[in-house]
Amino acid sequence: MEHFIPLSVPNLNGNELQYVTEAVKTEWLSTGGACISRFEQEFAEYAQVPEATAVQSGTAALHLSMIACGIGAGDLVIAPTLTFIAAVNPICYVGAEPVFMDCDDSLCIDPVKLEQYLSEECEERGGKHYDKMLDKPVKAIVIVHIFGNGADMERIMVLAALYNLPVIEDASEAVGTFFITGKYKGQMAGTIGNYGTYSFNGNKIITTGGGGMLVARKTEHVKYAKHLSTQAKSDELYFDHDYIGYNYRMTNLQAAVGVAQLEQLAKFINVKKRNYEYYKELGIDLMPFSNHVRPNYWFYSYMSDNLNRLMKHLEKCHVQARPVWKLIHTLPMYKHCRTYDISEATKYHKKIINIPCSSNLRNMDVERVAALIKGFEE
Ligand SMILES: *Cc1c(COP(=O)(O)O)cnc(C)c1O
């Protein structure tokens, strides 16, 4: 029987074990220790921002961003329907509700429909933009850089300024993606909006087991999020707290893995790029990434008219693939929520599968997967 080819698994062949061992020897395992600040500093340097704060998950980073934006009960937050659910749930954690937006061919939020929604479906009252149908104010926009691609931040930021809305940029899947044209040329995904969040879950391009990072355009916002993530403790010794905080701080052990992973990120991106191109050379017509970014090539998307049968075929041949997420506005918890003109997401949802893309995938693995897909489609 041929060996199993997983979809996306961590690559831990760097200094992970060494740094974890060193961390264990220091006996700093928990939410204090030198690796945490080292990981934060090195990540901030990589992302070219002054400061970053490390948390337990990408979801926690998103939750803290919502709180820091002052979003609460009765508010609306615009979010994509085609995304992993963790980008949406934090809207509800703070008592607000999502308004679901369509994607364009980048799979990220469609800026044209976003503009239409804001200009036609909302009206201004006292400086706020109210959804006319729901009579509730729109308070923020969540942008997700799907599969390592980059959303059209230039157009989105123009709209955000026009409608005075903060942007929470979920770059969980786009660690290492940066813009190569236009106003944000050279800037990393996640560093353009008011808040940027990253995830280091097990299947992301770099992992800490579980973990996340938060950055913000204003350094004081990063500091505030860090404060919230550490139980909002305002006095170290006397247990004084000034807010209902959270236990969201990353642990030293997670950060030890993170430091080692970050050392290899450039290499991971190179391998993923090479494998992406190799699939294409072998005749697999993968979806393109946008021309305005150098993507991190996190996930490869293939479109098939026979999605379910192709999935079964690959599974039978010990190759792991997966369909794209169920559209969030169709899930029971969200099906009552406001949607705006969703059509492309529905189309893509029916067709896209993600195929093996780990950074330790070998040429022979790519060749086997490509042969299976070609054999099936012929
Ligand atoms: C993985 C992911 C998250 C959540 O990250 P966790 O670290 O698993 O909490 C959020 N948004 C998107 C788009 C993701 O892919």
The distinct ligands, each listed once, are:
pyridoxal-5'-phosphate
Main sheet, how many strands, which sense, barrel?
10 strands, mixed
Helicity, as a percent range? 25-40%
CATH topology of the largest domain: Aspartate Aminotransferase, domain 2
What general outline do the C-alpha atoms trace? globular
Distance between the termini: 24 Å
CATH class of the largest domain: Alpha Beta
Report the portion of residues in β strands: 15-25%
Strand-pairing-aware structural class? alpha/beta
Describe the structure.
The chain has 378 residues and is α/β, with parallel strands linked by helices. It has 2 domains: 16-263, Aspartate Aminotransferase, domain 2 (3-Layer(aba) Sandwich), CATH 3.40.640.10; 265-377, Aspartate Aminotransferase, domain 1, CATH 3.90.1150. 36% of the residues lie in helices and 17% in strands. The protein has helices at residues 16-26, 34-47, 58-68, 89-93, 111-121, 153-162, 219-229, 252-281, 307-316, 344-351, 363-377; strands spanning 53-55, 76-80, 97-101, 122-125, 128-131, 136-144, 167-170, 178-179, 195-199, 212-216, 233-235, 240-241, 293-294, 300-303, 322-323, 338-339, 352-355. Strands 1, 2, 3, 4, 5, 6, 7, 9, 10 and 16 form a 10-stranded mixed β-sheet that branches. A 3-stranded antiparallel β-sheet has the order 14-17-15. Helix 1 runs antiparallel to helix 8, helix 2 packs parallel to helix 8 and helix 3 packs across helix 7. It binds pyridoxal-5'-phosphate (PLP).
